[in-house]
User: Fold Branched-chain amino acid ABC transporter permease from Candidatus Avidehalobacter gallistercoris.
Amino acid sequence: MKKLLTKKNLAVLLLIIVVYAVLLACDQLGVFNRQSKALLVPIGINIMLAVSLSLLVGFLGELSLGHAGFMSVGAYAGCMFTIHMDLPMAVELPLAMLIGGVVAGLFGFLIGIPALRLKGDYLAIVTLAFGEIIRSVLNNFSLVGGAGGLNGIPKYSNYTIVYVAMVITIIVIANLVHSRHGRAICSIRDNVIASESMGIPVVYYKLLAFVAAAVFAGVAGVLYGHNLGILKPSTFDFNKSIEILVMVVMGGMGSLPGAVIAAVVITVLPEALRGLSDYRMLIYAVVLIAMMLLNNNARFNEFKQRLFSKRAARHGAKLTKEGE
Assistant:
């Protein structure tokens, strides 16, 4: 219990409450217009997608181009459940999220067993093929509406539900990354041969990261479907997977806060520039390129490292004084 009630954990809990309170206050006071309020749910969903893929790409070091595929199977499984069930929302939506996460995780497990024995470009090709196969099957599967899409999905998602799901996603993945399992995953990224020689079960940890990323992508897909009220296979194409990957790369490989910030920027920026119809996509592309170049700049990374080192030193000195 004492380990849970640390100053760091209490500060994180306070931050979560404050952020939600600010969002709620802005909504009640009419600060958000209709367009701004409509962005809150997509922002939360994209953060879930970016953080989950960051586990696979940033911490494990494996390139996956099929995240939209896992999102789609989870979305369709969860939304089919709510369409055919007649339960209260408080029961139906959590069950749909559970079903979507389990189905996506199962697909992640089945694809991961053969795929994660591959490396680099070969793994990227396999995951890309998986995403395209799923999209093609959904396009031609009349039971889920085919190319016309799955209609009649109840619009259960709101920013409170998505915010809670987003916070849970970040907490679970952050705790996984900072646990001994996370250290094993990072060691595999740094040197597979050395990890194997130390007795780390490489395939097991690769599969763990793959399944965990797929589960949260599936849950995000369920929330996505219950926000729009319709699902179309064309939504989960190759471009969607690339968009999620860009969030991870732009935020910095192996950086969860970076993935969160990048997801917010990539979601908000196109809408913020909508008034500049002629130059919107040009400015959007320039901003993305500039952020990626800055993030990969050695001097900027050294500055960030020095900044965080100073903060850590101050925090350590403070703890030492308190201990005395």
Notes: The mean pLDDT is 82. The radius of gyration is 21 Å. DSSP finds 13 helices and no strands in the chain.
